[in-house]
Design brief:
Blueprint: H1 3-8, E1 17-18, H2 29-43, H3 54-64, E2 71-74, H4 77-87, E3 95-99, H5 108-111, E4 119-123, H6 133-137, E5 144-150, H7 162-171, E6 175-179, E7 198-202, E8 214-218, H8 259-275, H9 277-297, E9 301-302, E10 316-319, H10 323-335, E11 338-339, E12 341-343, E13 346-349, H11 357-366
Parallel strand pairs: 1-11, 3-4, 3-5, 5-6, 6-7
Antiparallel strand pairs: 2-8, 7-8, 9-10, 10-13, 12-13
Helix pairs in contact: 2-8, 3-8, 9-11
Length: 367
């Protein structure tokens, strides 16, 4: 597909410069058309077929690695991490390591465990909002049960070295859990090569779905060590008088989910597979090269760590040096239909594969 064909699938491109993909992806026509087709079957459900969960599991495994049966369907990143946090058996004296200032979906589920005597250890981040694998290594010991990090940090766009951190976790007998909300669909991830045991993510960002869609990957290596906490009819064999869980990640699924949203989401996943994640990631770097150079020329403060190209993503945070002026600039951009996010004291810019050089120039001219 060429850029014109791709952009024709995203109606927002005719109305605005959309640089807000880290918040959510704009609805595309493939997903919308599949959603509308599903809703028609709900109006007149003659010959209606049940939802096949493999429509999501199979493309997820192609995009992120692993086997389809290692994926459970959830409604959000936080739900998946929460299921794991409550499903692991902890004892007093155990500890969990997470980097400082992680997204709340990857901190609240662990902080709740302090009531059980579990220690939460925060790995130090650098002044440029990055962190080194050594920050994890300095804290880990024989009592560490989980190392939990975001594959891409929401508040800086930093991309840590997953495989190195996974190796550190495994060498110390710890589980390696990854929050993929800001990564899946934008950067290359291979759960096996990256030594990921558990990964939770959502559909409404880079995976081109909508709110209410998500997944939980649990490797077959560790699936037996995590107990289901909300078993529903899709978690076990259909036996009335006993509970016989599936021996894979399906055991973490609960009851009915929003089939309309998941059916539509499958079209978004198919589009990603057609374009290719490697191409999407290279486009992310090309887009952010332009943004970084432009912001540097204008002397803005770039918060995102940009020294190492392999630590960069499609997310750039910057500010004016003054919160008041940053807010004024944000409002100016939105008024001109250049859609970004005001996050804390920074403006977050997050282009995607449908973003053009011309759109980035419009953004840079306004700032």
């Amino acid at each position: 597909m060429n850029i014109e064909q791709i952009r024709s699938l995203f109606p927002i491109t005719k109305e605005a410069v959309y640089l807000n993909n880290a918040s959510q992806s704009p609805l595309n026509l493939l997903v919308n058309n599949k959603l509308q087709a599903h809703l028609k079957t709900e109006l007149i459900p003659i010959g209606k077929k049940g939802f096949n969960r493999d429509e999501i599991r199979i493309p997820l495994s192609k995009i992120l690695g692993g086997l389809p049966e290692e994926y459970a369907l959830t409604t959000s990143t936080g739900i998946g991490i929460g299921i794991v946090a409550q499903g692991l058996k902890f004892k007093k004296g155990d500890n969990i390591i997470i980097p400082e200032c992680e997204h709340w979906n990857n901190s609240y589920p662990w902080l709740q465990l302090k009531k059980k005597g579990v220690e939460i250890r925060f790995a130090k981040i650098n002044t440029d909002h990055s962190f080194e694998p050594e920050a994890i290594k300095n804290l880990i010991d024989g009592n560490t049960r989980v190392v939990a990090i975001a594959a891409v940090r929401f508040n800086s766009g930093f991309r840590p070295n997953l495989s190195t951190i996974g190796k550190i976790a495994h060498e110390n007998g710890a589980l390696f859990l990854v929050d993929a909300a800001q990564a899946a669909g934008m950067i290359p991830i291979d759960v096996e090569k990256d030594q990921i045991d558990v990964m939770s993510g959502c559909g409404f960002k880079w995976l081109l779905g909508m709110h209410g869609t998500g997944f939980l990957y649990v490797s077959k290596r560790v699936v037996k060590s995590i107990n289901p906490v909300l078993p529903g009819m899709f978690a076990a064999d259909r036996i009335y008088d006993q509970l016989s869980f599936y021996n894979d990640s399906r055991k973490f699924e609960t009851g009915t989910i929003a089939y309309s949203l998941f059916t539509a989401w499958s079209a978004g996943l198919e589009l990603l597979l057609k374009i290719g994640i490697e191409k999407i990631y290279q486009k992310a770097l090309e887009n952010t090269d332009l943004i970084i150079n432009g912001l540097q020329e204008k002397k803005y403060q770039i918060i995102t760590p940009i020294k190492k190209r392999d630590e960069r993503t499609a997310i750039i945070h910057f500010n004016t040096g003054s919160l008041e002026n940053t807010v004024i600039l944000y409002k100016k951009l939105v008024k001109k239909n250049v859609l970004v996010t005001l996050q804390g004291e920074n403006i977050r810019v997050s282009p995607n594969f449908f973003t053009t050089k011309e759109e980035i120039k419009i953004f840079l001219n306004l700032v």
